Structures are given as structure tokens and as C-alpha cells.
Amino acid sequence: MDCATLKIGTPCNFMSSKGCSFNGGGCYGAIEQCNGCDRAKQFPSGVFCISCPDPNQKWKLGNCNLATHVKKVAVQNTQKVNPLKASKRSAR
Fold it and tell me: S-S: 36 plus which of 8, 15, 19, 69, CB 3.0-4.6 Å?
């Protein structure tokens, strides 16, 4: 159902015929870390995330998993190789 409170015309899972069923009756605005994200959209009532009703909770423990402007850096595990075991494996 489309939102009729803050993000007018945007599909919302919390919207029902009785109104918004999210905590407090509406979504929370985007926070500073959301700047630059493709999911942060400008509405007449302010800037809101179209994917998440409470962006502060998404950023609470680190990076938001929905953020399009944050690049994930792959961490490579460099494992130490025992030369004796490596030579035995190659001899097989």
C-alpha cells in the first residue's frame, strides 16, 4: 500500500487502511550518514529512506547494509603456510 503520511505515493509495508502502523505512526527522517545514498529521497515533509523506516537503527552497529554509497572492502586472510607441510603436500 502507498504511504499517505510522510512519504506520499511511495510503497510502504507499514501502511494499512487505519494509517501507518510503524512505531510512532510514521517513518523517521534520514540521518547524516545517509547523505549520498540512492535510497534517501527528498519528500515535501523532509528526507527519508525509501527502504528503511528507521535509518538510525541501520547505522547503529556499523554500516547500513542497504547503503548504496558505502563500498565494502574485502579483507583478505593471509594464512601462514608451514613449509614442511607444504613440501609434503606437493610431493603427493
Answer: 69
Q: Is 8 a domain residue?
A: no
Q: So what's the pLDDT on residue 67?
A: 86
41 compared with 76, residue with greater pLDDT: 41
Residue position matching grid coordinates 572492502: 73
CA distance 65 to 70: 9
Number of domains the chain contains: 1
Whether 82 maps to a domain, the answer reads: yes
Does residue 2 fall inside a structural domain? no
